[in-house]
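In the current project phase, the collection of sequences with tokenised folds has grown. A sample record is quoted in full directly below:
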Amino acid sequence: MTAEVISGKELAAQKREEMKQEVIKLKQEGTTPGLAVILIGNNPASRSYVKAKQKACEDIGVHSVLIEMEDTISEQQLVKEIYALNEDDSIHGILVQLPLPNHIQEQAVIEAIVPEKDVDGFHPINIGKMMIGEETFLPCTPFGIVEMIKSKGIKMAGKHVVVIGRSNIVGKPVGQLLLNEHATVTYCHSRTNDMKSITQQADILVVAVGKANFIGAEYIKKDAVVIDVGVNRLDTGKLCGDVKYEEAKEVASFITPVPGGVGPMTITMLLHNTIEAAKRHA
């Protein structure tokens, strides 16, 4: 038996329909959720992500504002723009599209956004609240992953989760969210010795390394749940994940595809956070 596919695309469509109704209700009560996206420079991948975010906002009735800046902008000018958005009552969520030009410190920019409008869930205050299990804005990709696992009724409590990758955006927070769901979590990364012996113990394997086809079937325990976070473009122009999908689906019980897996859920959880921010403001 091959693995059952966890379709982020299908789950995202379902959640966005529900969100559409929430936005209608909020508008009737006098609040239109507003998201401001700051795009710096002309990185094609960033531009593509921003376009997808704007379309998603439009589809469910969220007001979105795109602020484009040259990649020569100073950190000071960028922070000034964020401060103005912090004060703007029509904007409930602020997102600065990463990566930033080298001369701008990512952390300084993230910390300039007030935690109440940090719908990306990267502000140290929001990360701290997530660590101790308090209600807060959760980072969108990890949040989406947990929702995907829950959507299939997969139990997380007591399960051994192995996360490959330790980025601040995905690896670290997804491990923490799964720990909050009472899983036992192990992190693997570039310095891990004998990674295969660890991943073979995983009931749930989350792969977020950004290397095409990095994990084959030999890394996966029979009937494990495999969550592939990677999106890599091959020389052929085709998109693929960090996991060798065709191999892995013969071993796993559940698997996420690329494309159509974690990606659509990331934007969906961003919309969720923006609507929550608007509700709290109202």
In short: The longest helix spans residues 8-28. The chain is about 40% helix and 15% strand.
